[in-house]
Amino acid sequence: MDFDLAIRITEIILALAFMQASAEHLSGPKDRACVKDRWLFVPRIFLCLLLLAGYQTPWVCAGLVALSVLILQRYQGPYNGGSDRMGLLVLSCLTLVHVLPSQLLQELAFGYLGLQLVLSYFMSGWVKIVNADWRNGRALGDVFAFSAYPVSEHVRNWARYPLLLRVMSWAVMGFELIFPLCLLHHAALVAGLLVAASFHLANAFLFGLNRFFWIWLAAYPSILWLQDRLF
Amino acid sequence: MLPALVPSWRFFDMIAPSPRIEYRLFDTGETPITDWQEYRPRPRYLSIFAMAKRMVWNPNWNEMLYLVSCSERIMAGEQDHSARQIQYCLRRDVKHQGGYDALQFRLVFLHREGEEIRKDVGYISPLYPRGNGVG
Asked: What residues of A are in contact with residue B64 (Cβ under 8 Å)?
């Protein structure tokens, strides 16, 4: 994938993901706390519209970084853990791409995002496979049985099928660990990203993690470009 | 910012005790007028259509996940801000229930012990009088 095209697609998906999350923040009751939130999320939507339009992108990115710091301060940390962290990472790399002076440095910044995307899968697989509870399926059983994530009591029933959970655990760990090998061939990478997106989609349906789905998609162009650049 | 720029990506490396928020309401004499009840219990069933809709619109669930983070932060010692956030959401959501003068919440943690899932109380808040706006 061409560098400029990959950057542009990243900007568009990131802007849409930030707008979706901001709109959710603004949907609360109109009381004091929400007024405070409006000062953060209305400007964020406005900046995202400028990012979508491709207008003054370096300044827009810098503005979004500043707002992200204020949002971190407002919630004393990330609002939605990993998805907020990935959002900040994508935004930071994008900002660096627009402010760094040379093509080489810009490519390094965008390549760092691609590298972190690969690590996001590989490290998640590694920390699971060294844990016996993940290898025997019990950890995934616990996620369904008593974690805060299942979206309904009906979904909790999956905890009753230990064999299925063991197969699912190994499928998730196996995919996460072999994901870096997808870099070796373009078709393998496209297939790997489709599987990964399906995995995020399943997490969004079963555990309500919708923001993860959109924000991880925003990082996909970086790995498609990096694969073209390296191989 | 640093954890975002150099992330560890240790998703679900271990399944930690999982918090639930429970609350009860009090009258003027500081006598509870309700039992502890779970805050925002999950629905029994959610259709595929409802799950698909949540892909683009999921504010309540994402707020609940934030309150789970706040619960974990309280147990890690960061009590002031996180307790205020939980208190604010509770107050907002129970304000339609008249006839109470104060509320209190507690954090219960579900965890596995052998084959059994246990529930332990990890934190009990002070009484919060009705009407103090928080943000």
From this structure: 148
Q: Where are the domains positioned within chain B? A: 18-129
Structure tokens at A133: 């509870």
- The pLDDT tens digits of the residues spanning A101-142 come to 999 999 999 999 999 999 999 999 999 999 999 999 999 999
Q: Chain A: nearest CA to B32, how far in angstroms? A: 27
Q: Which residue has the tokens 């498609």?
A: A224
H-type helices in chain B, by residue range?
2-5, 48-53, 59-75, 79-94
What is the rounded CA–CA span in Å between residue A221 and residue B90?
Answer: 41
Mean pLDDT score across all residues of chain A? 94
What average pLDDT does range B76-92 have in this prediction? Answer: 90
pLDDT score for B100? 87
CB pairs under 8 A between A and B: 146
Q: Do A154 and B45 touch (CB under 8 A)?
A: yes
Domain of residue A207 covers 3-230
Query: Dihedral of CA B7/A83/A28/B106: which sign?
Result: negative
Write out chain B residues lying below 8 Å of A88, CB-based.
1, 4-5
**Alpha-carbon Rg for chain A in angstroms:** 19
Per cent of chain A over pLDDT 90 is 90
- pLDDT tens sequence across A131-143: 999 999 999 999 9
Domain count, chain A: 1
